[in-house]
Design goal:
Layout lengths: L14 E10 L9 E7 L11 E5 L2 E5 L3 H4 L8 E3 L2 H15 L4 E5 L10 H12 L4 E5 L17 E4 L10 H4 L2 H10 L2 E8 L1 H5 L3 H8 L7 E5 L4 H18 L2 E2 L3 H6 L6
Parallel strand pairs: 2-6, 6-7, 7-8, 8-9, 9-10, 10-11
Antiparallel strand pairs: 1-2, 1-5, 3-4
């Protein structure tokens, strides 16, 4: 099984967090639900086709809308978590302050790069032991041995498998063994695709159905490409009509629609 490890051996039993905050889930099956987000740092993809432009020092780069969490150029702004208790206490304090326990979303970057890290596992086990609804937003390329790490059987997986419009090579963005493992063992899972007008014209439904063929029981959600409201508005109607034609579930991106950003909302 292939899992790309972008972290050095010196960083074992530690994971990187770019932000954590209470908000509303903006995408997928649980859109609209109050949720507490933990956004990890680091990803095994860059998705240049998604078109979000940003500066890394003196260099101009193009990538996904969470470039601040995916690009390791920004690691000096990330928080190193090498003690699970400190983060767990922070989460507990937040729950006490707001007076309820919201859904939990662990996103990135690619959070499952840390799936076998001891500190990361301790945080996940705490959340599950609290009987919280825990969703991982993942690109679906990291193979999980559920027999070795049974806590993940209690989790929900929002599988944001990347399509050709991400401009990532197919062999990197589609890992059948990883998807099948999740479909067999996870509590719940669904597919979530980011679509733009051009990819619809190019026949992106063929790609979606091929991926769906790997895990046929997965419900399909499609959302418009866009890192800001202006870009969303260029794609939303076409994606809406695309979903009607192909019997997919349309899913907006509420956080971007309301706040015009994907960061910390």
């Amino acid at each position: 099984m292939r899992t790309e490890n972008i972290f050095s051996k010196k960083e074992k039993s530690v994971f990187w967090l770019t932000e954590h905050f209470l908000s509303i889930q903006g995408e997928g099956r649980y859109a609209g639900m109050p949720s507490y987000f933990l956004r990890t740092g680091g990803c095994n993809m860059s998705c240049p086709g998604f078109g979000a432009k940003y500066s890394a020092g003196n260099e101009s780069r193009t990538g996904c809308d969470t470039w601040f969490a995916s690009d390791r150029f920004f690691i000096n702004k990330w928080q190193k978590i090498d003690n699970a208790k400190i983060l767990i206490d922070t989460i507990k304090s937040t729950f006490d302050e707001i007076g309820y326990k919201p859904h939990i979303v662990i996103t990135g970057g690619e959070p499952l790069l840390y799936h076998n890290d001891r500190v990361f596992l301790d945080v996940v086990k705490f959340l599950i032991n609290e009987n919280l609804c825990l969703t991982f937003e993942t690109n679906g390329t990291v193979f999980i041995d559920f027999s070795k790490f049974p806590v993940y059987k209690e989790c929900i997986f929002a599988l944001s498998v990347k399509l050709s419009n991400s401009m990532e090579p197919e062999q990197k963005r589609i890992v059948p063994e990883a998807l099948r493992s999740i479909s067999v063992s996870a509590r719940e899972y669904f597919l979530k695709f980011t679509i733009d007008s051009d990819s619809i014209i190019d026949g992106i439904e063929t790609e979606i159905e091929r991926i769906r063929g790997l895990i046929p029981s997965a419900e399909v959600y499609c959302m418009p490409l866009g890192h800001d409201k202006k870009t969303l508005e260029k794609n939303d109607k076409a994606v809406f009509e695309f979903c009607v034609r192909h019997n997919y579930t349309y899913c907006d991106r509420l956080h971007i629609r309301i706040f015009n950003t994907s960061k910390g909302v």
